[in-house]
Amino acid sequence: MFFGISNGQTPIKALNGTNIINNEISSQDGQSIREGIIRLIPGSTFSQTSAGPNQTWNISNLILEPDILRYENTTPDETDLALFPGTTMVCKMYNAFNTSPVSISYCTGTTNSLNGIVGLGGITGYSDAEFVLNYTTNNINLGNFPKVYGDTTTDNVAGTYAFDIYTGTFTGTFTTTVDAYGTMNAGFEGVVNVTRLKTVESLQISYSGLGVVGTFVQTTYRYYRQNDFWPYVKSTNRVIYIEALGMNTNTTEIEKAPSTFLLSTSQNTLEKIVSLFPNPATNSINVKTGEEIISLTVLDQLGKVVLTKNQSDNLDISTLQNGIYFVNIKTNEGTLVKKFIKE
């Protein structure tokens, strides 16, 4: 069935960014990497139950967690290909407190820095500190990209898992649907048009000698702005119930990307040339950088702008309440987000 592009919604180009093509790194933020993503505190959520055209979502009151995330896509190495055959792109997620990835997604699909995924997309594996899923028996088929409202793909999946010291097999389904589009109120960033991609993974978990011992259900909503390769907002609810292994969890995580992209200077380079001091601070903070500072913007944990200053390397924070804040440092080489504590 063909679905045209309705007013107010745009095609979704890729699940998570673009790849490295012909040994050339597409390192611009918003392509093979995504910088400055902020995680929202556990329990912070917004209504996502309605689907269809012309929906409205409001994230203006969500509370930010003191953690900045970075996603980076790379080509698979020999170990990746041995463990997750068929992988063409590895998506690694880092946070502010770890130099090693805190989660890794192993993906398939033809991609380039201009068009995102062209044709079929899929997932061969996933790993984090809690578990590893390897879809070696039957990889996830996400369907064809780009996607428009109404596109739906349901696929049977199967493979092996590792939860802590336990290993076994799983079978289930993975459904990918472009189920809604509309506007999102992002607070100080304004109202933006977004298209939503919903994925639902439902697995039956088996353990040797016991058969099916539990379930794994993960529902993810990804909201994409026009022409973006990465989600602007992503919400993931994961429910794991395996009584025999003592697992019963229900967690929701929400991530929000910044409204703008870095320029040509990489995040690692900006981190090296930009420093914020003192931290913690009481009366003022200073920004040291070898680049020209265009503006400094301070946000509280609700994402509300509480201070702004142009062409200055110093901010008077004496009137702020004690707590955690984020400062958006915009230079002539790009934008960097750093957190600080007001005491």
Global mean pLDDT: 83
Strand content: over 45%
Shape: globular
Supply the helix-strand structural class: mainly beta
Question: Strand-and-helix sequence, N→C?
Answer: EEEHEEEEEEEEEEEHEEEEEEE
Radius of gyration, rounded? 21 Å
DSSP summary, beta strand count: 21
Task: State the helix count.
Answer: 2
The biggest beta sheet reads: 12 strands, antiparallel, barrel
Residue runs with pLDDT of under 50 for 5 or more positions: 1-7, 22-26, 111-118, 263-267
Helical amount: under 10%
- Strand order across the biggest sheet? 1-3-4-5-6-7-9-10-11-12-13-14
- In whole angstroms, the N-to-C terminal distance is 59 Å
Number of domains: 2
Task: Write up this protein.
This protein has 343 residues and is mainly β. It folds into 2 domains: 33-45 and 53-256, no CATH class; 267-342, Immunoglobulin-like. The chain contains 2 helices and 21 strands. The longest helix is centred in the C-terminal third of the chain and has 7 residues, at 267-273. It is globular, with a radius of gyration of 21 Å.
